[in-house]
Amino acid sequence: MKYFDSHAHYFDAWFNEYEGGADALLEKIFSENVGVIVNIATNPENLKECLAQARKFENMYASSGIHPEDCLYIDDIDAALSVIEESVSDAEQRMANKIVAIGEIGLDYYWTPEEKEEQKVCFRAQMDLAKKLGAPVIIHDREAHGDVLEIIKEYPEVTGVVHSFSGSVEMAKEVMKLGYYISVNGVTTFKNARKIVEIVEGLRDLHPDAM
Questions:
Q1: Which of 61, 63, 57, 62 is nearest to 28 (CA)?
Q2: Among 78, 109, 198, 199, fewest CB within 10 Å belongs to which?
Q3: What is the pLDDT of residues 36-74, one digit of tens each?
Q4: For residues 206 and 182, which has the higher predicted lDDT (pLDDT)?
Q5: Separation of first and last alpha carbons in the chain
Q6: What global pTM score does this model have?
């Protein structure tokens, strides 16, 4: 069986610590047990590296978007959003760059709870783009469950995945009824990971194929 890694950032400098860098690691895992990887951009700068890696490896695809935290540190957010739109608006270019989704987008109130409105503007702008293009989204939600749910409900035409899900069973059910998938990460295997285990168990009857 080959694994499908739906959320990775192989352009991150952390991978330089691996002997041979990210390329060597990717060659190794593609030759072993990983079948497909989606490389997730978080801002216009690392988008270039993200796309370059996806073009280099046959079974790697990419996404284009601005992470909620990155939205707060970009001087000209309108220009940054224009870069994202340009990367996905032309279907032929999108195919050449192997872009399969808009993301990583969403809200993160963990570090900057006082800057919610700025994040919402950035989130909605990218949801507008997804609606316009009929593209799926990859949503980041950290301690912003209510606002994330409110905004995705504003866009019933848009679907995708809420990655590394950390909300409640009730929120998961609402999200899935809207057509989204949820993903859980390695935290599920931790001995003290009661909440996420309860969520996974609570969803089995609703949608056994969603996990």
A1: 57
A2: 78
A3: 999 999 999 999 999 999 999 999 999 999 999 999 999
A4: 182
A5: 16
A6: 0.89
